[in-house]
From TrEMBL:
Superkingdom per UniProt: Bacteria
Protein name: MBL fold metallo-hydrolase
A matching Pfam family: WHD_BLACT
Stretches that traverse the bilayer: none
Key words, A-Z: Hydrolase
C-alpha cells in the first residue's frame, strides 16, 4: 500500500487517457478507496459504455453526465457490487435510459466489522455477463473476464480494441485487494490472479489508483506476496497456536491502525483457504497446524 499523491486530485474532471477511454474520479477517498472510485467512459463519440459508475453522489453523477456529453450510453457496466462501485448505476440508468450490464446481483450479510465499502443490496442487472461474453458498441468491444475472489461476483472487462483491462478491485497498483470472508475467497482469488497472469493485456485500469503498465509483472508479484503471507502464517502457527489478532500483530509491523481490520480479514481468508486444504484447523478462535 502506498501513500496517495498530493492534492489537488482530478476529482470530477473528465481525463482522456486513451482515444477510447475517459476517466472520472469520484469524491469518495478513504484508506480503502485511495483517492476515490475511478469511473471509466469507453467510446469515441458515437456511443459509450460507463464502467463502475461509483457511489450515488450528486456531484459525481453531474461529472459523469458532463463527461458523457450527450453521447448515447449503450451500457452501464459494473465489475462488482460494493457500495463504492455500483449504486450510481440506478440514477445514471434513469437519466440515460441505458441498461445495467455486467456482474450478477449479490446482497450478502456479514456479521462483525467490515473493512470495505459493504455490498449494494439494491443492485439489479438488466443483463448479466458470463465469462467470455461481450458488450459491444460503436468501435468498442468489452469482454467479461470472470475473476472471483475479492467477491464472488467480480468481473474484469477487456477492451479488445486497445488491449486494456478494467480490473475493478481485483488488481490495483497501490494496494493488494481486500478478501473478506465468507463471500471473499482466497483460493478463488489466487486462481483468478493466475488466470490474469496467463493473459497478455497491455495495461490495467483499476477502479482505484494509477494505471498498471506492467500488468504481468505486478500480478506475478501479487501471487508471490500472497504465497509469502501463507508461508508466514504456517510458520507462526508452527511455533504455537494463535488467534487471528495475534497473527496480525506478528505479521504486520507498523501497520496503520485504520487498516488493522482489513489485515485481520485477509489473514482470516488465508486461514479458511488453508483449512479447506487440510493444512490448519481451529478450536474456537484459536488456529493451529494439522
Amino acid at each position: 500500500m502506498v501513500t496517495p499523491p498530493p492534492k489537488p486530485w482530478p476529482t470530477g474532471a473528465a481525463e482522456q487517457i486513451e482515444p477510447l477511454i475517459r476517466r472520472v474520479l469520484a469524491p469518495n477517498p478513504s484508506p480503502y478507496t485511495y483517492t476515490g472510485t475511478q469511473t471509466y467512459v469507453v467510446g469515441a463519440g458515437a456511443g459509450c459504455a460507463v464502467i463502475d459508475p461509483g457511489p450515488d453522489d450528486p456531484a459525481h453523477l453531474a461529472a459523469l453526465e458532463a463527461a458523457i456529453g450527450g453521447e448515447p450510453v449503450h451500457a452501464i457496466m459494473c465489475t462488482h457490487t460494493h457500495r463504492d462501485h455500483s449504486p450510481a448505476s440506478r440514477p445514471l440508468a434513469q437519466r440515460t435510459g441505458a441498461p445495467i450490464v455486467g456482474c450478477a446481483p449479490l446482497a450478502f450479510d456479514v456479521d462483525g466489522p467490515r473493512a470495505d465499502e459493504g455490498f449494494d443490496p439494491d443492485y439489479e442487472a438488466d443483463r448479466v455477463l458470463a465469462d467470455g461474453e461481450a458488450m459491444t458498441g460503436p468501435g468498442w468491444t468489452l469482454r467479461a473476464v470472470a475473476t472471483p475472489g475479492h467477491v464472488s461476483n467480480h468481473l474484469c472487462f477487456a477492451l479488445e480494441e486497445s488491449g486494456a483491462l478494467f480490473t475493478g478491485d481485483h488488481v490495483m497498483g497501490w494496494s493488494t485487494s481486500v478478501v473478506v470472508p465468507p463471500d471473499g475467497d482466497m483460493g478463488q482469488y489466487m486462481r483468478s490472479l493466475g488466470l490474469l497472469h496467463e493473459r497478455e493485456d497491455r495495461i490495467y485500469y483499476p477502479a482505484h489508483g494509477p494505471a498498471v503498465d506492467k500488468p504481468r509483472q505486478l500480478v506475478r508479484g501479487m501471487i508471490g506476496h500472497r504465497r509469502q503471507r501463507e508461508n508466514q502464517i504456517m510458520r507462526l502457527l508452527g511455533e504455537a497456536p494463535r488467534a487471528v489478532e495475534q497473527l496480525v500483530e506478528r505479521m504486520y509491523k507498523g501497520l496503520d491502525p485504520r487498516l488493522t481490520k482489513a489485515a485481520g480479514l485477509s489473514v482470516s481468508a488465508h486461514l479458511i483457504d488453508l483449512e479447506r486444504r487440510g493444512l490448519v484447523g481451529r478450536s474456537g478462535n484459536i488456529w493451529q497446524t494439522n
